[in-house]
Amino acid sequence: YGLPKEARPRKEKILAVSRQLVNYLLLDKAAKVTVVECPDVNAIMTRVSDLWKKEAANKTRELTESLEVTDESLTEWLDKHSFVKNECRYLSPDAEKVLSKIPKVTIVGLIIDRKSIQVNRSLNRANELDIPACSLDLSSSNLSSMQEPLNVDCVLDALHGWRSKDWSTALNEALRRHQERHPKRPQHVEN
User: Fold this and answer.
1) Rounded Cα–Cα distance for residues 154 and 159 (Å)
2) Between the CA of residue 188 and those of 86, 91, 118, 142, what are the distances in Å?
3) Which residues of the chain have pLDDT under 50?
4) Which spans in the chain are helix H?
């Protein structure tokens, strides 16, 4: 998971990323999420910690067991943890290959599902890093016209659900939960 390369990300971006991380960590009790190339580690960790204390009052684990935030590059992080790049998949809406199974490491950028935002950005990044890129199969869902990109927590939720369900069911359940969490935002699912 990476943040835009800005010297100081806007407060709204920090809040949005923090909220999505907490949403996902509350959903998946066993999740381990790493945010790499973070330009302001303290800002993200402070906001996530505040939200975690508020949202996870009955937490069964400490936040530090679930989340790592670092300013290391993705390559440095992969090397440090001895991941081979072919064990990873970089999600990109522009990739020709569709993700067919959950890899050891899934790399999710901030926006991975809408081609109208900087076409090929994530695909180019995956190619620069020599990491195979895959898109998500959104054809099996009841998605509307995708005026709003999928949030990272929604993507992680769908990937989590895919561990025990077929992809279509996992994606549609994640989209419904996203709609419940964000009732005032443009919706992905047609009613």
Assistant:
1) 9
2) 32, 19, 20, 8
3) 1-2, 4, 112-116, 189-191
4) 11-27, 41-55, 63-66, 74-80, 121-129, 152-162, 167-181
- What's at 130, amino acid-wise? D
Q: Which of 148, 145, 120 is nearest to 135 (CA)?
A: 120
What is the structure's pLDDT at 85? 81
Q: CA-based angle 21:27:31, to the nearest 5?
A: 70
- Please state, in angstroms and rounded to a whole number, the distance separating the CA atoms of residues 190 and 165: 22
Q: What is the pLDDT of residue 117?
A: 61
Closest CA to 56 of 40, 72, 67: 67
Q: Which helix (H) or strand (E) holds 105?
A: strand 105-107
pLDDT at 72: 92
User: What tokens does 164 get?
Assistant: 């025990």
Tracing tokens 């990873």 back to the chain, one arrives at: 88
Residue 126, CB-side half-sphere exposure with 13 Å CA sphere: 26
Q: Which residue has the tokens 């620069």?
A: 128
Q: Return the amino acid letter for 8.
A: R
Residue at 14: amino acid letter: I
Q: Which DSSP symbol is given to 135?
A: B
Encoded tokens for 107: 């790399």
Predicted confidence at residue 112, as pLDDT, reads 43
Sheet containing 88-91: order of strands:
105-107, 88-91, 133-134
